[in-house]
Amino acid sequence: MKRVKWGWIWRRVGWTMLALCLLAAVCLAQNPTYQQDATWHAPADAASRPNPLSTKPQTAAGGRKLFIRNCVECHGKDGTGIETKHSADLQLPVVQQQSDGVFFWKITNGNTGRGMPSFSKMPELQRWQIVLYIRTLKQP
Amino acid sequence: MLTSKFVHPFLIIVLFLATRGFAQESPFFVTYNHHMEEPGNLDIEVSTTNDIPKSGQRFYIAPYTEFEYGVTAQWTTEFYLEGQSTWADSTVFTGWRVENRYKPLKREHWINPVLYLEYENLNEASRIQKEEEGEAPDVSSPNALLTSEAVHELETKLILSSDYHDWNIAENFLMTKNFAEREGYEFGYSFGVARPLGTLASGADCRFCRENFIAGVEIYGGLGSTLGFGLHDTARYIAPVLSWAVSENSTLRFSPGFGLSQQSSPVLLRFGYTYEVQNFGSKISKLFGRKQ
Question: Between B72, B106, B290, which is nearest A28 by CB?
């Protein structure tokens, strides 16, 4: 009886798995169309949270640094968004009308289906610093 | 020759693509948490596991290179190449691994599960000890013997992770099946806790600010197999961990692991350097002519 070559079979399974991952990575990493997500709403209790740094406006400088490091790639240096990234213009009144709590919730949770990652790995105060900085981006 | 042909153009591409980013990586070497790689970003990591052996055993270093890519915000894929060098024995290539992590829940929850699937095409000389499962690895036999024994392993993990204030608490439960040997299903675990040393970012760019450091501890070990479940003959470690975001794209990590059982090495020293390439996916698309 012919002996089954399990080593050979598993090597092929592994290579196939690797090839599929690379192929899927190329296909899925692209986000060719974007529409605003009407379902991306913060719960009421999260939306009503006040910014604990609102009395310390000087901490917005740290928020600017964090914004440049983490957000500029998609939202642009001035926060107006990058068209090809389909990212939000943070200066728009419709965006700025949202509460601090909503910003914090959106930064924390992200919108993974639309390419906005979660930044929950950042300490809470740093996320609030970013919120503080986003407020300075308001249109004059 | 082949290496230089491949490596030099690759390094040039990486340096060319490098842009501003901030690589605040998880400090853990073994435990995974629910923080996925950001979509389109590529992390290139070079790490080593170094063993301070018991008397009669030989010192080894086990370097590995890891390529971690964020396919989507919920899916991260990784590819590893690994080797090993044992004092007064030899230096050998020990194989490759491909792993995938998928976070099924879109929002942050009290406990965030992540599903993990990995295929390993290794040999028994593998020493990187990215996880501990089953019984303790064989560190006494010569490489010539160990490299002839193939390992074709499928590994699954359930990763549970929580962020409580600024603490990250992660628990991993793993099960592996080596299809090249009749070892049954092997089990293992790891737990980790970590916290940034500074939670408020300073306005100035700084290298040694507390906010650039994350410290923690992880505990990991094997739990035997379906042929003999339990802590008997397993390796177990407790390991403080420290990561330092040394620049905007790179992170250094260090962890001394202390053996907690007879089968463990007395000390496992782990070092890691991670370089993050932001928007790697879209830059590669651009290179091939896709309009941005």
Answer: B72
ipTM confidence: 0.81
Rg (CA), chain A: 21
Measured between alpha carbons, how far is B24 from B193 in angstroms, rounded to an integer? 16
Q: How far is B248 from chain A (nearest CA, A)?
A: 8
Chain B residues touching A10 at Cβ < 8 A: 121, 152, 179-180
Task: Answer yes or no: do B79 and A125 touch at CB < 8 A.
Answer: no
From the list A123, A28, A60, A74, the residue with the least C-alpha distance to B77 is A28
Q: In a 10 Å sphere around its CB, with 0-12 CB exposed, 13-18 middle and 19+ buried, how is residue A94 labelled?
A: exposed
Burial letters B144-174, b for 16+ CB under 10 A, else e: eebbeebbbbbbebebbbbbeebebbbbbbb
CA A27 centroid distance within chain:
20
Is B72's CB within 8 Å of A124's CB?
no
Place of tokens 């603490």: B167
Cβ contacts of B163 on chain A, cutoff 8 Å: 120-121
pTM of the model: 0.84
Considering only the beta carbons, identify the residue of B19, B71, B180 that sits closest to A29.
B71
Tens of pLDDT, residues B65-102: 999 999 998 999 999 999 999 998 999 999 999 999 99
Tell me which DSSP letter residue B203 carries: S
Closest chain A residue to the Cα of B106, Cα to Cα = A112
A136 and chain B: CB distance < 8 Å anywhere? no
Nearest to B121 by CA among A18, A20, A22, A5: A18
Q: How many angstroms separate the CA atoms of B292 and B286, rounded?
A: 7
Classify the C-alpha dihedral B23-B28-B30-B35 as positive or negative: negative
* B74: nearest CA partner in chain A: A112
- A19 to chain B, any CB pair closer than 8 A? The answer is no
Report pLDDT digits (tens) over B257-291. Answer: 999 998 898 999 999 999 999 888 878 887 877 65
Q: How many residue contacts between A and B have a Cβ separation below 8 Å?
A: 134
pLDDT on residue B75: 94
Enumerate the H helices of chain B as residue ranges: 2-17, 143-146, 280-287
Q: Which of B188, B178, B132, B191 is nearest to B152 (CA)?
A: B178
As a whole number of angstroms, the distance between CA B144 and CA A128 comes to 56
Separation between Cα atoms, residue B40 and residue A101, nearest integer Å: 28
